[in-house]
Amino acid sequence: MSRINTLLTWTCLASAGIWTGAPALAAADDTAVGIGAFRPGATLQLGDGVGNSLLERLRTLEMDRDQARLDLAARDRLIGELKRALDDERTRSEALTSKVQFLEHARISLENARQEIADRGQKIEALELQLAQSEVQRLRSERFLYDIASDLLASDLGDIATLTAIQGRLRARIVNTETMQSVGTMPKKDGAK
Predict the structure, then answer these.
(1) Greater model confidence, 26 or 162
(2) Most buried in the list 24, 43, 72, 181, measured by CB within 10 Å?
(3) First to last CA, the chain
(4) For residue 141, what pLDDT band results from cuts at 50, 70 and 90?
(5) What CA–CA distance (Å, rounded) separates 134 from 132?
(6) CA 26 from chain center: how many Å?
């Protein structure tokens, strides 16, 4: 019956994970009285086979458990630090995203401003061309008037033909100017000599 109890004890210890080795019989003792199970003293070693007792094995397992708990706590701290770093990086990423959006808006505004400058530059060139044309037209008109004044000063007061020719030139110039202004263009050449 004691052998069955011993086998049941081994089975329970093995299933609990406390005892993992095969049962080892104690060394033969010259002073032992009896044979087999009837011998006095321990006949079975319950250890890891290296000379560690069950209590030592339990202490080793408890130390391993405590070390595993410390390792787990260290990993939890590391996970917490990594989560904080991740949150910091997310905040930084969001800030960079808003900066990128701001810079994209600024780039679009800059492109619009460049286009506006180019459009205004073209308008300025067109206005400068119109100004130059107006200046040329003014100079031509002044020249025409100086020619008329010169012809008047050079002519005799009683010379009707010269006065009629000057009067015809003035009327033609007025009609030509009115016609060009109604069409929207100024004459490029006047009818002066």
Answers:
(1) 162
(2) 43
(3) 151
(4) confident
(5) 5
(6) 75
Q: Distance of alpha carbon 41 from its chain centroid, rounded? A: 79
**Is 105 exposed, middle or buried, given 0-12, 13-18 or 19+ CB atoms closer than 10 A?**
exposed
Which letter does DSSP use for residue 36 in this model? Answer: G
Instruction: Indicate whether 48 belongs to any domain.
Output: yes
76 or 176: which carries more pLDDT confidence? 76
Q: Which residue do the tokens 């040329």 mark?
A: 136
Domains in the chain, number: 1
Q: What is the dihedral of CA 177, 183, 186, 188, to 10 degrees?
A: -100
User: At residue 100, what are phi and psi to the nearest 5 degrees?
Assistant: -65, -40
Does residue 63 form part of some domain? no
Q: Whole-structure pTM over 0.85, yes or no?
A: no
CB neighbourhood size of 136 (10 A): 12
Residue 31 lies in a domain: yes
Please tell me the predicted confidence (pLDDT) of residue 85: 96
Indicate the length of the chain as a whole number. 193
